[in-house]
Amino acid sequence: MTTLKPKKKQIKKQSLEYYLSLHYPVTIYPDADGGYVAEIKDLPGCLTQGETLEETMANINEARELWLETVYENGDIIPLPATDDTYSGKLLLRMPKTLHHRLAEAAKTEGVSLNQYIIFLLSNS
């Protein structure tokens, strides 16, 4: 018995300049020892740190360029930046009936839909 392997989708490789021109989201957070850490989650392992926000941003831009150049030269696949298009805004939840009842009653008391009430609760957490 043979198993058919799905064909990998062929992606046309772009120029290095194309990848360098893309805008990858950067996540910055304070470091416990002082300064800041920056990371580009779309580029695995692409992170850096700096004492100031300005230094951290300069460092992450340099790290991004070096990451892209290295991966490009190795012939590996470069991921494209994530976009909000990957999220539909829809979420299906399963919950106990008692919780569903409690939330529905609270939403009714507030005069809003159950969805609006849950969004309110989540956005205030």
Explain how this protein is built.
This protein is mostly helical. Helix content is 42%, strand content 10%. It is built from 4 helices and 3 strands; from the N terminus they run αβββααα. The chain has helices at residues 16-21, 53-74, 97-110, 114-123; strands spanning 27-30, 36-39, 47-50. Strands 1-2-3 form a 3-stranded antiparallel sheet, with helices on one face. Helix 3 packs across helix 4. The longest helix has 22 residues, at 53-74. Residues 5-10 have low confidence and may be disordered.
Total of DSSP H or I helical runs spanning 4+ residues: 4
Question: β content, as a range?
Answer: 5-15%
Mean pLDDT: 86
Output the radius of gyration. Answer: 22 Å
Described by strand count, sense and barrel closure, the largest sheet is: 3 strands, antiparallel
Number of strands: 3
Highlighted features:
single chain, 125 residues, three-stranded antiparallel beta sheet, 4 helices, 3 strands, 42% helix, elongated
Brief synopsis:
The protein has 125 residues and is mostly helical.
Can you lay out the helices and strands and say which pair or pack?
Layout: H1 16-21, E1 27-30, E2 36-39, E3 47-50, H2 53-74, H3 97-110, H4 114-123
Antiparallel strand pairs: 1-2, 2-3
Helix pairs in contact: 3-4
